[in-house]
Structure formats: C-alpha cells, structure tokens
C-alpha cells in the first residue's frame, strides 16, 4: 500500500510534498520519488529506503507544481528505476500510481511493439506511455482515454510539462482532493492534507479530477461533467471526527 501527494499553487511545492510524504509513511514504503515542475523544466529526486534517507540527499528544488510518492512494490522489484513518479518516453509527463493494473502485460507488449521504451519493471509506467500515445491536444482527454483501457485498481495522479495542472482519478483505491486558496492538493489519504486545509473532496470510484491553482473540476470517466447533486454523500471517520458529504469540512482540535 503506497502513498500519493500532489500540489499546485502559489507556494514552493517541495516542503509541502515532504510534509505529505512524512504523513504517508505509516502506510509502508520502500522507495520515494518526487517530480517538481518549474517553467517547463522538471526536477526529480528518488531514493530507495525511507524518508530519512530520501531527505539526506535531497537537492534544492524550486517549483510550484509537483507530485510525490511512497512506493510499496507489488509489480517490479524495489529499485530506484521502479520508484514513482514514472515517465513517458519523452520525459514530459509523470505518473504516480497506487494499485495493480491487471492487463499491464498485454498493453505493455502492444506499446513496446509500437516503439515505446519502458524504463521500469512496474505496471504503473504503462499509464504514462498510454497518455503519451493518446495525447492530441489535451492532457485531460488523453488521461481519460488511457484510463478506459486499464483493468485493475488505481489511484493515480499526473503532472506534465505540457500543461500547468494536476490530474487525478481513482478506481478501487482511495484518492482525495484538498481545497485551498490559490492552491490545491491531491493525496491518497486525508492525513497528508490536514496541515494545509480542512476542505476535502473524496473522489468516488470512476471520477477524474483536474486541479489548477484556482479551481478544481471533477468529471466522471465515462461521460461528461456530473453535477454536485449527483454525488452520493459519503461518511468517513477520521481520527474520531465524523465527516459527511462529498465536500468535507472538518474541525480539528
Ligand atoms: N503496482 C505499483 C508498483 O508496484 C503500485 C504499488 C502499490 O500500489 O503498492 O509500483
């Protein structure tokens, strides 16, 4: 069980991702990686081991849009090459994934036959290459088209040099959006967000979220926009607080 944290906004992403990763470590972790974008350039740092080891060699990295991941290997061994975020052939987009993609072998073979080069032994890297393959003019459309080809479970977040946004989606794995002022967050659980916001959207199975620094939009994977009224209320219990409704507000003591 691994963890996802993503940030887009007005502040430096690095300390926010580190704080998020710190609050995801309880889920277990064998390697860590972050990808931060700054004016069309990407800065990556990865390490096998825990957050302490990761922080020992972390270089100065600036940028206000990033994703990070604590991996717990299920497909592909524990190695730096298999740490998420994983990239497409051109190194333009970055993907973090929790879950297991059941049809990855077939799809990986198809993509390899079409000339894609895979740098890891994970199932997750497949998502980056599918998006690359499906990209025409919109990352969001390519993302949705790619997800429709997958069987298995996923919570996934993506950033890219092409567009200043974060994308997230889930099927059978938890993914939540944190709402801020001039900034938004994505994570695989609520605790990494608690220091930054008390407003959270819990995505439902099949939902796709697009995050910019000033807005968040949630669509359903297989159709056009859904309205809030169609969202089913959810009830969660976090640290003893009962939280109701899909836009969640909770008060911490
Ligand atoms: N299947 C992915 C990997 O092994 C994600 C791991 C997980 O969710 O634990 O990299």
Q: What this model shows, in words?
A:
The protein has one domain (3-244): Glutamine Phosphoribosylpyrophosphate, subunit 1, domain 1 (4-Layer Sandwich), CATH 3.60.20.10. It starts with a strand and ends with a strand. The protein has 253 residues and is an alpha+beta fold. An eight-stranded antiparallel β-sheet has the order 3-2-4-1-10-9-11-16. The chain has a six-stranded antiparallel β-sheet with strand order 5-6-7-8-12-13, covered by helices on one side. The chain has helices at 13-22, 51-56, 104-113, 125-134, 139-147; strands at residues 3-9, 31-38, 41-48, 65-71, 86-87, 93-98, 154-160, 166-171, 176-179, 183-187, 199-202, 207-211, 216-220, 235-238, 241-244, 247-249. β14 and β15 (241-244) form a beta hairpin. It is globular, with a radius of gyration of 17 Å. Helices cover 18% and strands 34% of the residues. Bound molecules: glutamic acid.
